[in-house]
Design a protein that fits this description.
The complex is a heterodimer of chains A (271) and B (789). By secondary structure, chain A is of the alpha+beta class. Among the domains of chain A are: 53 residues, Uridine Diphospho-n-acetylenolpyruvylglucosamine Reductase, domain 2 (2-Layer Sandwich), CATH 3.30.43; 96 residues, CO dehydrogenase flavoprotein, C-terminal domain (Enolase-like, domain 1, 2-Layer Sandwich), CATH 3.30.390.50. Chain A is 33% helix and 24% strand. In chain A, the strands form four sheets. In chain A, strands 4-5-10-6-7 form a five-stranded antiparallel β-sheet. Chain A is globular, with a radius of gyration of 18 Å. Chain B is α+β, with helices and mostly antiparallel strands. Helix content of chain B is 29%, strand content 22%. Chain B has a seven-stranded mixed β-sheet, sandwiched between helices. In chain B, strands 7-15-14-13-8 form a five-stranded mixed β-sheet, with helices on both faces. In chain B, strand 16 and strand 17 form a beta hairpin. The relative contact order of chain B is 0.12. The chains are: A alpha+beta (271), B alpha+beta (789). Chains A and B meet through helix 11 of A and helix 4 and helix 20 of B. Bound molecules: flavin-adenine dinucleotide. The site of flavin-adenine dinucleotide has 29 residues of chain A, from strand 2, helix 2 and helix 7. Flavin-adenine dinucleotide binds next to strand 2, helix 2 and helix 7 of chain A.
Chain lengths: 271, 789
Amino acid sequence: MYAFTYHRATGLRHAANLLEKLEDPKILAGGQTLLPTMKQRLASPTNLIDLDKVEGMSEITAAGRSVTIGALTRHNDVHKSPIVQQAIPALAYLAGLIGDPAVRHRGTIGGSVANNDPNADYPAACLALGATIVTNKRKIAADEFFKGLFETALEPNEIITKITFPVPKKAGYYKFRNQASRFALVGVFVAKRPSEIRVAVTGAGSSGVFRVPSFEEALKKRFSPKSLEGLTIPADGMASDIHGSAEYRAHLVNVCARRAVAAADEKTPAE
Amino acid sequence: MSATGIGAAVRRKEDLRFITGKGQYTDDVSRPGQAHIYFVRSPHAHARIKRIDTKTAAGMPGVVGIVTGAEFAESKLGNLICGWTVLSKDGSPMKMAPHPALAVGKACHVGDPVAVVVADTLAQAKDAAEKINVDYEILPAVVDPTKAAGKGAPLIHDAAPNNTIYNWHIGDHDATAAAFRGAKHVTKLEFVNNRLVPNAMEPRAALAEYDAGTQHLTLWNATQNPHVARLVISAFVGIAPENKLRVIAPDVGGGFGSKIFIYPEEVVCLWAARQFNRPVKWTAERSESFISDAHGRDHVTTAELALDADHKITGLKVKTVANLGAYMSTFSSAVPTFLYATLLSGQYAIPHIYAEVDAVYTNTVPVDAYRGAGRPEATFVVERLVEAAARELDLDPADLRKKNFVKTFPYQTAVASLYDAGDYNASLQKALQIHDYKGFGKRKRESEKNGKIRGIGFATYIEACGVAPSSLVGQLGAGVGLWESAEVRVNPTGSVELLTGCHAHGQGHETTFAQLVAERLGIGIDQVNVVHGDTDKVQFGMGTYGSRSGAVGMSAIVKALDKVEAKAKKIAAHLLEAAEGDIVFKDGKFTVAGTDRSVAWGELALAAYVAHKFPTGEIEPGLKETAFYDPTNFTFPAGCHICEVEIDPETGVTSVVGWTAVDDFGTVINPMIVEGQVHGGVAQGVGQALLEHTVYNDSGQLVSGSYMDYAMPRADNLPSLKVDMTVTKCPSNPLGIKGCGEAGAIAAPAAVMNAITNALGTEKIDMPATPAAVWSTIQQLNKTRLAAE
Ligand SMILES: Cc1cc2nc3c(=O)[nH]c(=O)nc-3n(C[C@H](O)[C@H](O)[C@H](O)COP(=O)(O)OP(=O)(O)OC[C@H]3O[C@@H](n4cnc5c(N)ncnc54)[C@H](O)[C@@H]3O)c2cc1C
């Protein structure tokens, strides 16, 4: 780790001011991605602005047909939230699959979404559920937000404040873990929304989270795992590494999608 | 059996400090004025070092000193050595290339240290290291052992033409060839025994301090054998005379073999401490461990088993290429030879065996002993072959095993080992029953209904523990003897310090050794303090590895206790005014036989030290005895493990759904600790079979260099294990102990792969059987099946 200056933001505006004012700043949320990277000297911000003590950023509220989760909400709190479990059980279930207990008690939804790791879980949920990412400057639809590997629509000094998820009719998530990191080798989130069906895939793609229109079409006819049988997606565009070839990942997208649909029908238990 | 004596499942005394964070590991020790050292390591697998520019770095804040490999070489210290000489078939000695602590002229693997920075803080050392400019000329690299000796492979060391260290063999070539000519059936398999990264929980660490007043060096080191470290560092590297070097191995958080060896880091820390007259500390970072701890396994093998019409095994032929990495680590030569091929008879009476082993250099991290060291590789060869032969002959694999088991002891194998005692069928039968082998068919049909493929596999393994008779290993080329020492120091109040030359790094010696002493002397285990791991406190000892601490280390304790008891009886006879021969020692009391006159242990201990009215001409005051025990044979633990797996054909995921282990470890001191050893061993073996994938790319980069890519077994990778035992005592040591530390890691890979190949119906899949590998094997089989239809 290189030396840096630590700042504790007392409020959202304070954080925003520090971001504008300081040289080479970086926001620290749960630190579960940023700190390991800094320890390995792969990131070296001059000024670190800690959001930990900012109030009002870790609330979970339900209003009408949507659930809003503050950016600083820990994975474990999403997992255990009665509101999320009731409205979008698949999302609560997903949060419980992230990392290990230590990671879930520190890591935040805002940090995860801002980081947009191609193997992270939340991006699939945001995309499939048609979430809105709210920042201190604007609202960004998930469709516009995820731009590729570790890239998002966020401007340099923009802070995610909360994320709003429309409540689907039903939804399911199936995560096939990388055996080493236990991030998603392939994760598929399926959401049946009032107006459409969305299938979003994390882990598999060589340029981040993506949707599978052919699966969505098939599920529109009948929302059943059977509708996806025999459908394939091309290995082109899939990532390939020591954990699996592009062909294997393409195959797993179908397997995970079918299992996610089955889970949605079962009303995924949020253990 | 007493509540804490031999055979009692006593809770581990050491756990209180370990689980409350009170352990003292090397990194917990800090010395006044301590500096930190950072190792600059080669990012290339094979590269000439043209120039190292340290000028800018030397001026950085906090820098105490910077030393390059070439500068270090000027100190004229000795190289690191491999302490076991193996001869090739033609009688020529192995081709050991020089291994300087810091690379000179050329780096031979990614992670090879080429320079060091010593600075006030670690961050300063790292900052300065970033400013060191090493001008490398990248050379072609070879990482695949099967290509290392081939045409066109780059030469790594001038001392080893064709990158070949030795072409070794054992057994009778002609007789084995004849057995194959007469065979009714031959089973042939090829396999890779995958390279493993050890990953002890505590990374390697060293802290060196120089006392300019006494010219004495002290090394705190995460090592499994402090005395051997001191000997090698003194006698071979030549840092300081043995009496001017103290090595302390404080609490050590796991070793699995990787902390047996003498590494560059401790040598350089010692040298730097004296050079800069500052204590110097190094603790590996995990990513550093991946590229600097000696790895394990890495064999490529072709093996054939010959059977007659009656399904008796008549011969075994094995050809193995062993990858020893870029340098020969401390015991690397012995692992794929004497610790491997001497176990190739398994539990079977195989009249003729011939094995050839070629050891090669490659541009990879050095390979040496890792939990089981050679024996898991041997078991894998034998057990995979026997299982495959049973399938080819349409026999029950349990029956084929039973038919071929060694049944009478002692049994001289065709590969030098002399098995002393065992009852292999007893453990097989018990395992079959516990596992409900008969119910497998039903369970398989259940799985099928759920779209899963179930498979079952055996490993009836054998291992050689209790290393080792000194004269025998001497004949085989070892540079050391493998006896063990113990000193029993009785205090005036009757409590005891037990000084052992063994070293505990997870085994629980503080409890098990105390159990032995306490039972023998009739005192509580809390009255026995086990002292180990400090060359200034403890007499020379050989350390802990190869399940030697029970069989060899405890035998030395028994010998020392015998001496203590003999002297105590003399004192008792004096105190009770009786003849020495009439004194009986039982339950902590010395009694004159046939009377009620007695003296308790505590009184006697006090009398020994008070020594009032002692006939000092006949009896010396004090009560303290030392013993050295040299075993007469290896010990041969054996057992039967049965693994049941369920494969999800859609994803290729293998779940281990059932495990039965029935082991024969001889006498068991503490069944709870032994069971824990079996659990840990099985977990490591399952890790090797399913998860642990060490991947080098062609240019010699370690692709799986962190936990993001290297999968270690976790609790949820394992089912609840059914662990049981059978007992035949080891006849060659006083307690009848065989040893249990490696068993699980030896049995598990073969058992898992036998289960997977049983499920898939093909022998063609290598470890680790990752989901991707299993899935593509299934795809391949489907293609072949379709083509056939
Ligand atoms: C061992 C381990 C296992 C893990 N396993 C998984 C897994 O299975 N699945 C998974 O999805 N993730 C996994 N993670 C990642 C984890 O979920 C992280 O917590 C998450 O990716 C980042 O969240 P954070 O709050 O820790 O962010 P930080 O590490 O603090 O920050 C990450 C990045 O986001 C920026 N940032 C943070 N908050 C905001 C904000 N509100 N607005 C704008 N930018 C912001 C930071 O500046 C930084 O660049 C794992 C991590 C670890 C260490």
